[in-house]
Amino acid sequence: MTTSDINKTEVAEFLLTGFSDSWKVQIVHAALFLLIYLAALIGNLLIMMLTTLDVQLQTPMYFFLRNLSFLDFCYISVTVPKSIVSSLTHNATISFLGCALQVFFFIDLASTEIAILTVMSYDRYVAITQPLHYEVTINQGACVKMMAMSWLSGVICGLMHVTATFSLPFCGSNRINQFFCDIPQLLSLLDSKVIIIEIGVMVFITSLVIICFVAITLSYMYIFSTIMRIPSKEGRSKTFSTCIPHLVVVTLFMVSGSVAYVKPLSNSPSVLDLLLSVFYTVVPPTLNPIIYCLRNKDIKAALRKQCGMLDGEFY
């Protein structure tokens, strides 16, 4: 057995240091994360239910939104529940396999979310700038293909990261300075001489994220340009109020994630690392339902309709 093989088996589990070693801080963290998690689950489940049951919401835009909500439901469930349990039980360990699975699903879903957000921006671009061609361009077949490609791209990115990282020999400390298994913190546990492949994967995927971000930004530039030509001030205001919050969340998600993955590696805990991770793990799944549900008249009408049907059944 080689030295490399021995080192690989030395780390049987990892220790997630989280936000603090203080019991009081951990309780506050668990309570706050539990409230956020429940809000995210309820919001995303509500959107999935309404866009499935209401006939008026059987359009491409709500098809994409339903996929996004399902993804966000899964995405926040990969990291936050484990962090809550760890804080409440004061047991922050995670097995080697558990860590590898968490990394795979996290990268898979994060990459898929970026792809879906890009597809949704393209959908809005066609709907607003080329309304006469919308039904032909964004037809049912095109929707299914775009969603299939989005989910497939996520799986490929997840496999690339897991293969490049967990095939390397972990040795020395097993403390991950994060509340979940994240690639940048895992790389800090590896010998800098052997992580060149994973760094290459990170640079490649981050480049794809930047391309997606540029595509989204260009789509919204064309959208805003078209909006400015709307004669009605009320119409312009309504469209802006819908698009800008979405663009803000997309920017927070992509920029914070990209910064976290390309900044220099560090062996010491950093408040910036934890803050950035919250922006790309917790914020998007929680805010997306608010942006797409509370600010959307069709969704609110569907909710009132379903509530009315329930009231009718009750009485």
From TrEMBL:
Source superkingdom: Eukaryota
Domain called G-protein coupled receptors family 1 profile: residue spans: 43-292
InterPro entries: GPCR_Rhodpsn, GPCR_Rhodpsn_7TM, Olfact_rcpt, Olfactory_GPCR
Entry-linked Pfam families: 7tm_4
TM regions (residue ranges): 27-50, 62-80, 148-170, 194-223, 244-262, 274-294
The entry's keywords: Cell membrane, G-protein coupled receptor, Membrane, Olfaction, Receptor, Sensory transduction, Transducer, Transmembrane, Transmembrane helix
Subcellular locations according to the entry: Cell membrane
Signal peptide interval: none
Chief localization: membrane
Topology versus the membrane: Multi-pass membrane protein
Family: Belongs to the G-protein coupled receptor 1 family.
Record protein name field: Olfactory receptor
Species classification: Eukaryota, Metazoa, Chordata, Craniata, Vertebrata
